[in-house]
Hints:
Elements: H1 2-7, E1 11-16, H2 22-33, E2 36-39, H3 40-49, H4 53-63, H5 70-84, E3 91-94, H6 100-109, E4 117-122, H7 125-139, H8 146-169, E5 173-177, H9 182-195
Parallel strand pairs: 1-3, 1-4, 2-3, 4-5
Helix pairs in contact: 2-9, 3-4, 7-8
Bound molecules: BIS(adenosine)-5'-tetraphosphate (B4P).
The site of BIS(adenosine)-5'-tetraphosphate has 31 residues, from α2, α3, α4, α7 and α9.
Amino acid sequence: AAEEALKSTKVVFVLGGPGSGKGTQCKKIVEKFGYTHLSTGDLLREEVASGSAQGKKLTEIMEKGELVPLETVLMLLKDNMIARAPNSRGFLIDGYPREMEQGVRFEDEVTVRESEFLLYLNVSEDTMTSRLLGRAQTSGRVDDNEETIKQRLKTFSENKKAIMEYYSKENKMEMITAEKSVDEVFAEVVRAFEGRGI
Ligand code: B4P
């Protein structure tokens, strides 16, 4: 029954570089539109916090600013979506797809209706770096340090072109410039959602 519910639930992807404001905007989207927020980064950090053997490996990868194996993310995501689908009016999938293959495998293996669109938060590397260094002072995250931030930016820029081209071709790309304040960015996010009939 839960898998059935998943088939009729809307999905919006939220993507952007590290520090582009994904998690920040998703919180506000949940407040306004009542969507269910699933951040792949948060799911991975929960796995790490559980102290499992897999968690240890994940920390090592995240410390290097690299992408964790596709299978791991896809499984975490799918399990969580199935569990929550019966009580959800739509999913915000934050930080996914990070590489093109993730998008393709999602479509093949997570049986949802076609995704609505991809919200892309576009920000300069300078802005992302300064936001992440700001967060580093309080976050305690293993990947919020200068060395790892550089690598995270590199990982992101290697993958973004293919993803953007794919979703543009499908007419599913909603790109927003996310340099301004949280509320100013959110005003644009709301326009994008409403423009897509959400
Ligand atoms: P994530 O958890 O996705 O980390 P992130 O890119 O930094 O985004 P986050 O949502 O946390 O931060 P935000 O920009 O909102 O990924 C971490 C790691 O997990 C990856 O490097 C990778 O190893 C792994 N991973 C995750 N998903 C994966 C996947 N699908 N496949 C493989 N591996 C995966 O906020 C950053 C800071 O900016 C905050 O301090 C915030 O307050 C501030 N900020 C936000 N908006 C602002 C604004 N408008 N103005 C000023 N400050 C702002």
